[in-house]
Specification:
Layout: H1 3-10, H2 18-25, E1 38-43, E2 50-57, E3 63-70, H3 74-87, H4 92-98, H5 101-107, H6 116-136, H7 150-154, E4 156-157, H8 158-169
Antiparallel strand pairs: 1-2, 1-4, 2-3
Bound molecules: FE2/S2 (inorganic) cluster (FES).
FE2/S2 (inorganic) cluster binds at residues 44, 47, 49, 72-73, 75-76, 115, 118, 121.
Length: 173
């Protein structure tokens, strides 16, 4: 496929729901947070985009406040916004057990299939943050499996992502 064809394709608007478009324009809980309890920076190997979540966690392991910064696409900004609204006030355990990218996609009014990974990135980054929180406390509960979940694997840490992308692009070390 030549560049002209590619350009033509990229101008075809993606079938985003109205909710995704609205949240892309006016995301909730966007921005950096001062003194968060935990942060996680994660990127998706499918597109190379990154997201950061900042969480303030109360003693009872409940999310008191959560914000995000996205360096991703409209779907990622919208799903990150949805995730923050869904999990604010929830316990870390319930988030871990109940939050799935499919639920987030449903809440978004559906995502174009080529954009599923953008929602997966948002959920994976949250799960990475929860895992990191307990690792920092040196007491990982039994409901967090030792192996990374599918969503966490799709939301790689900055270094992992850079390594993976470098391999993809064949950049010499
Ligand atoms: S295309 Fe990268 S997050 Fe959506």
């Amino acid at each position: 496929m030549d560049l002209q064809e590619l350009n033509k394709m990229s101008r075809i608007p993606l079938p985003y729901s109205q909710k995704v478009i609205d949240l892309f324009r006016n995301p909730k809980n966007q921005g950096k947070m001062e003194n968060p309890t935990v942060t996680s920076v994660a990127g998706n190997p499918a597109c190379g985009d990154m997201i950061t979540f900042y969480m303030k966690i109360k003693d009872q392991k409940i999310i008191e406040k959560i914000t995000f910064e996205s360096y991703g696409c409209a779907a990622n900004i919208a799903t990150a916004s949805i995730v923050t609204e869904m999990i604010k006030g929830m316990s870390l355990e319930n988030i871990w057990k109940e939050l799935t990218w499919k639920k987030v996609a449903e809440e978004a009014g559906g995502l174009p299939s080529v954009k599923s990974h953008c929602g997966i990135l948002a959920v994976g980054a949250v799960k990475r943050a929860i895992r990191k929180f307990y690792q920092n406390e040196s007491s990982v509960p039994s409901w967090i499996p030792q192996d990374l979940t599918y969503e966490e694997k799709q939301a790689m840490e900055e270094e992992e992502l850079a390594e993976k992308l470098a391999k993809k692009l064949n950049v010499p070390e």
